[in-house]
Each structure stands twice: as structure tokens, then as C-alpha cells.
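Researcher: Please generate the 3D structure of the following complex. Treat every line as part of one assembly.
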Amino acid sequence: MAQNDTSVAAYPARTAQKTRAKRISLSRSLSYVGMLVVVLVIGIPLYWMVIASFKTNTEIYTIPPTWIPHEPTLANYPAAWRAAPFGQYYLNSIFITVVGTAIKVFFAVTSAYALVFLRFPGKQYIFLILLAALMIPPEITIVPNYITVARLGWVNTYQGILVAGIATAYGTFLLRQYFSTMPREIIEAAKVDGANHIQILVLIVLPIAQPALVTMALITVVYIWNDFLWPLIVTNSASMRTLPIGIFWLLDQEGVTNWGVVMAGTVFVIAPIVLIFIWAQKYIVEGIAAGAVKE
Amino acid sequence: MAVVPTPNPNGMPQTAAWRTRFRREWREWLLFVLFVFPNLFLFGVFNYWPLVYNFYLSFVDWNFLRADILWVGFRNYERVFTSNKFYEILWNTVVFSVSSFIFTLILGLAIALLLNQRLQGRNLVRAVVFSPTMLSGAAIAVIWTYIFDPRYGLLSEILGFVGLPSPNWLTSTFWAMPALIIVYVWKNMGYSVIIFLAGLQTISKDLYDAARVDGANAWERFVHVTLPGLRPIVFFLSVTTVLQSFQAFDIIRVMTAGGPANATNTLIYHLYELGFVSFNAGQAGVIAVVLFIIMFTLTVIQFRFMDQSDHGER
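Model: Done. Output below.
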């Protein structure tokens, strides 16, 4: 009886399933088309930059433009390297980024450790003061900070570029969140074994917090590498410029008349970050998302 | 973080309790000071002090070089608030921020909904759409200056393909602002995609199943389940996006330098211009104070709202 029932009902049910499957496969294909459009919209400008850097000057200034260079050339890269001191820019950018990131990570680690694991009267207020600094956009501090840095005699120096943005609230906040989820028992057990705070920090807390540290370090690297306004203000000679400032001046000199060279210079600026992103995008993307959606 | 109040055993007087506490914990206090105060000190010098200093500067006349700093009272405020240029700039800032915010949120949500399905390669698309937010704004601006080139640029080619003439994007008082908004949205929408995707994942599948059982179609499920579920995210993103767009500087500096004829001059760009092009520390101070008040108000609204509304968050 029961079997009979299902077999009778099976026929219309199956056709309904079929139309539903058809509708789903249609919406699927539309979704893939949508994804393709997104990739093209983001990808084509970047593709345009890369191929322009391989085009000869005559090819760039012919209409209509070509999608694949007819006579691919590498000449724009050495030309860009000669047009502006990119070697020096790289040196400056790498130095500022490495030192800046190291200091910021150090500050974030020590501050977060103190805020979570050390006793101090009124430390919750100290945390609030650190956190509230996030509400002060660095852009509005440029005039007073320039005056401060000038009084220190640090205009056009590495210290000058680094010092104004070296304190970290974001990193402290991120690591503090992470540290406070760590099981207290491990820390207490280490204390009983006679470990001091430096040992606990280096041997226990940091290894556990490694994913958060990596995320924070990567985001800091990207941030410092791309920073524009402050290095623009505080440097006044080509020898101190970072890559983003360098590409800006290159556009000023060569833009419109020499796009191939300018695009090669742009590749110099973004290539390192593209490589880092390809290598570590999971860390970065998930770190960014975790900052907004706290569980 | 629960704050444990200092225990006060045996009704000891407060000072005595402090003294014993100090004796017991001073090593930790010292370490705390060593660990936190460098960070705190630098925030004091380079974040908090500038607020005070900007406020002071807004009442003086100074060009950074002269030894004497003239106190002029409210004259800088008067000059700024009675000039047409200021209102033009304020309006530009509002247009830029509101448009960036609308497009970033709508496109961000649309792409996030697209990528929230089980599709092949969606992680790759997510990475691609997020990638421009990681790249130097100055470099992106340089690329787009080339793309907007009215003769040899990519956009003129595409527009020509559909039979339209290319506007002189960056040198036209009408098109320069839309051009900047296009670049800004192109660069930053990936951030809202990531945040929306994270938000979509926090909405329980049971709600969708329940809605389906009740016979809700895809649109009804979107309106009655997805949107309410995303409310805190939408709010968070709205404020962050607006605050971020207030700070947009590199693409403006590189692509238009606030021009032509102030058509793309925004508050932050004007602050830079006053401070480092015309060396007018006083009026730069006024703009900094105005910007801070606007942004601070937005942030306070955000905190207020988040405290009240988000149940699942934090």
C-alpha cells in the first residue's frame, strides 16, 4: 500500500524537481556570469597597466589601443629605473616598512600582554585611552605633527617618516582580543613552575598567538608600504622618498607623454604587495573580517 | 575583561591597603609601565596633543616660519565660514562621501550575495575583488589617470566602442568628481564584500529553512531574513565607509590635485593645501577642528548604536 502510494506520487514530483533543477542551473550560470563580470571589472585596469608597461611608445600612442602588445618590449623597465631613483625608493620603502612593522608589532605585543596578564591599578582606563586614539584620524594631525617633527629636526629623515604613526591601537586591540581568549591555566601553571613574565610572553603566549601576529604584521606591512600623505609631507628630497611618493613624481614628470615608463614604475610599486597578497591572502582577508564581526 | 576591585580585607584603611598592594605587586606595575607607556606616550604626542594644538592654531596667524605667532581670536573661523570656497569644499566632501558610501554598500552587498553561494572559484573571486584595497592608492590613481586619458585611455576605447565620445574626465569640472568616485569605489568595495560575506555567514541557516517552509520566495527571504540579519553589519559599514571616504587623499592628490577649479577639493585635501601649499597654519587648524568634530560625532553615533542594537556581535 505504502509503496503504491509513493509510486503514484512520484511522477509529478519528479517533473517539479526537474523544473526546479533547471531553474537552479539557470541561476547558477547567471551567478558564474556575475563572477566573471566582477573579475573583469577588477582585473582589466590592472591588466591594462601590465600590458602598457610592455608596449613600445608608438604602440601606446596609436588608436585604437591594442589588447596584446604587437611588439612586446622590456625597455620601459630600465627606462623607468633611470627616470627616477627607484633603487633608492625601494631601499627607503623596504627599510621603513620592515622597521616600522617590527616596532608596531613589538608595541602591540607588549601593550596587549600588559593589558591582559599584568596587574595595574586602573588599567581598563589605560586601555580606553589607547582605544580612543583610533578615533583620531591621522590626516587631521598632519600640521601639528609636522611642527613637532620639525622641532625634533627630523624632517626628511627615516625617524621622521616613522615616528608619527608608530604607536598602535589597532594591533593592541587585535592582540588583546586574542590573548584574552587564552586559557589562564597554562599561564598559571607556568608561573607555578617559576617562569617570569618575559618567559611566559616569549615561550607560551607568542607561539599560541602566532596566527594573530602574522595577520597583524601583514596588515601593518601593507599599510606602511602604501602610506602616502605623511611621507609626502615629511620628505623633501628624492633620496628620502618612498615608492608611492616616487610614482607620484614620476607621473608628474613623464605622465601623458610616456605612459609605458610610468606604468612600468607602477608595477615596481605594487608588485611586492601583490606577491605578499597572493602568498598570504587567507591570513589577510580573514583577519580583516574578524576585526569587524566579533563572535 | 572583568575588573576585579581591590579587596579590602579586615577593614584596613584604604591607604594601607594600597601600600600592601604596592608591596606585593610593584614588580608587575613596573613591567606594565615599561610595556604600555612607550605606546601610550607616542599616542599622547602624535595623536592627542595634535588635537589640542590644532585647536590652538585655529586662533593664531602663523606661516610656520615667522618667530612671532599672532593671536587673532576668531578671525580664522570668520574667514573660513564666510568664504564661498569653504561651502563648495564641504559640498564636494558630502557628494564624494555619500556617493562612495552608496555605491560601495550596494555593490559590496550584491557581490557578497553572489559569492555566498556554493560556486566553484568563489574564493578566487573574493581575493580578486579584495586585492585593490591592498594596493597603493597613489599607484592605483596613476593607473586610472592613464585609463581616463581622453585620447589613449582604456575608457575612451570602451566608450568609443558603444559610440560615445570620451569626456575629458580629469580636466572637466563636471566629470572629475565622478571619475574620483569611480576609482575610490573600484578600490574599496572589496572591503565591504569581505565584511558582508562574514556577516552573511553569521545568519543561521535555520532561519532560511523556516522561511522556505513558510513558502517565502528568494526575494522575500532576502528582505525578511538576510537584510534584518545584516543590520549591524550595514550600520558598521556605513559609518566606516563614510569615515574612510572623509580621509581619501592619495587619489585626489595624484589625479586632480583638488581641481579643476576646486571641483574635487575636499576637506582633507583643503587641510593639506592650507597647511603645506599656502602655509596658513591658522586656517588649517580651523579645517582640522571642523573635520574632527564631524568625524568624532559619526564615531560616537556608531558606538551608541552598536551598544544598543547588536545582540549577536561582540
